[in-house]
Sequence to fold (323 residues):
Amino acid sequence: MTDKEIVNLVQSGDRMAYVHLVERHQRLVWYMISKLIHDKSDVEELAQDVFLKIFDKIEAFKFESKLSTWIATIAYRTAMNFAQKKKIPIDEGFDIDRLNNYIVDYKSPDKLTEKAEIKALVLEMVEQLPQQYQLVLSLFHLQEMSYPEIAEITGMPIGTVKNYLFRARKLLKDGFGELLKETIWD
Amino acid sequence: MGLTEKDKDIQQSLDANRSANTKEYESEFHEYKQLYEVLESEPKLNIPDGFALRVAQLALDRKVKGATKKDYWFFAIGVAMILFFAIGGVVWAGVSLNIEGFAVVKPFLKYFLMGIGLIAIFQYLDYKIWKRRLDNL
Fold:
């Protein structure tokens, strides 16, 4: 079923279509919120709020943007408003030295021989990046969103989105470039 | 090391699914390509089972509650308007109101009361049927 068909069904009051919509987009919402808010119970509550807002607003949704972009925008704003209200810092205290130390600590060759280990380590390092970097990385690589779509969701200029993406990948590549080069991937 | 033009070029090529432009870029292009592969691996999210069903139930409960609240507001506004016009009418007609006037209405009082009762019953049934329809959505 296409997004358009699901939205039309939800708009006409089909309960199961709404369940289907939530199931289809819950990973996107969950991932976006958890990149900005770390408390697990808050993440669940906010994800719930996001889908309730979607339910309330779906009547007015006219496909001027993709459904996933619209949902991600609501998720982003909900998480940012919550962070602001609860004074949760976003991207404060990012320390490039801490990130470099993190890489050095794990660079013992006996540890990093398996592809899975390297993969896990790179993903662990992603978690050390500033939250907004993580967010744009996940929107681009996991949700396959374009630069303009990410800009629309986050309200950042396209230049900033690109800059965050390029810098984040550069940091990761510099940290693990040699290991990535030597690893034989499927 | 900072972000160089070379890094930007390679990343832009990969973002657009293009291959390495020159031999010079090949090694770093390969590193970036491996990195992209890692970044595309799906993370574990621990979404609780039945999350979608629970949210759907919550959304419907809220909808019914919201509709009921709205209904009460309309009812209250309706009653207020009836009272306003009734009192307004009495005040406006107060000058010519006399006992004989009431005497004319008195034999029909039970019909008036029956009429009001019937309207109330219809309103109640209508609300019950409408609520059941919403619950079955």
Observations:
- The mean pLDDT of chain A is 85.
- DSSP finds nine helices and no strands in chain A.
- Chain A has two domains: 3-85, 96-182.
- The first helix of chain A runs from residue 3 to 11.
